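Propose amino acids for all 136 sites.
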């Protein structure tokens, strides 16, 4: 999952975690770099309005799902990936993780989508501003 994917709930009112469950995903990996970027966005003093609210919502939801204990089977669970080099680009980390773990990536970033598609990685994206869809 990348940063702009975590902004979807606040920007469009879509419960991405519920949607991922609907698509059959049970495990969600959020790189630590993405969580840090989201935290920076929500704390930025020059960021206002919908973007700031979306960053706060995305950060809160991620922590909520991360802290779930005794998650029942079939319910998605968020994990933070700690194994990454400091200062590396989040998109680079996401692409590397996706290849390594043979995982799909939830993103709305067109450049990242093109790179992932070229590498044969499945992409989950926002369709029609109200649901997630998978593209192989």
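Proposal:
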């Amino acid at each position: 999952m990348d940063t702009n994917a975590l902004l979807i709930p606040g920007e469009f009112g879509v419960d991405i975690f519920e949607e991922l469950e609907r698509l059959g995903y049970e495990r969600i990996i959020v790189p630590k770099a993405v969580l840090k970027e989201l935290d920076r966005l929500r704390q930025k003093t020059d960021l206002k309005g919908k973007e700031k609210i979306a960053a706060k919502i995305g950060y809160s939801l991620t922590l909520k799902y991360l802290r779930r204990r005794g998650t029942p089977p079939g319910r998605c669970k968020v994990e933070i990936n700690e194994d990454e080099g400091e200062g590396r680009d989040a998109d680079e980390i996401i692409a590397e993780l996706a290849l390594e773990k043979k995982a799909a990536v939830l993103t709305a970033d067109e450049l990242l989508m093109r790179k992932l598609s070229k590498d044969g990685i499945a992409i989950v994206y926002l369709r029609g501003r109200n649901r997630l869809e998978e593209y192989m």
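The chain has a mean pLDDT of 85. The first strand starts at residue 27 and ends at 31.
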